[in-house]
Amino acid sequence: MKLILKITVIILLTNLLASCKTGETSISDQETISCMTEKIDSMNYTFVPSTATPMSGGRTIQLTSPYSLKITKDTITSYLPYFGRAYSAPYSSDEGGIKFASTKFDYLISEKKKGMWDVSIDIKDNQHNYKLVLRIGDTGYTSLTVQENSRQPISFYGKIE
User: Fold this and answer.
1) pTM of the predicted model, to two decimals?
2) Separation of alpha carbons 52 and 62, rounded Å
3) Where are the beta strands (DSSP E) in 40-129?
4) Which of 20, 81, 134, 159 has the highest local Cβ count within 10 Å?
5) Rounded CA gap, 129 and 54, in Å?
6) pLDDT greater than 70 at residue 63
7) How far apart are CA 65 and CA 49, in angstroms?
């Protein structure tokens, strides 16, 4: 009888401690959401991709180099790879990938549901007309789709820093 009572007390204490930890996590989740909201609204963040998926139906490619898309109020800088079909070849080998720095762009934020955003960016001052769509979750995990007239679209998955 005492053994059953001890086991019951241990189980109850374990459940009580587990529920206390859950409460602590929700506070840090709220901090993460507010930090992400501040970054998106202030237009000061960097997307760092971890995978790339060509829309031509290829395999997902793990990215190991330090690629990024940096967004500030006055400039968007892209250093991303490109895997997929191009309808016209670049003139030099330096023009491969999705590399640009733009100061003329349209930036549109739409909040979907609590903690989810769609950010649409149209690049206007580059020889390529890029359309970037970021789908950002409340914890910072993001998917990025890049469309351009002379290439098939490509998607990236990564995190906002």
Assistant:
1) 0.76
2) 7
3) 45-54, 61-62, 68-71, 76-80, 98-102, 105-111, 117-123
4) 134
5) 18
6) yes
7) 10
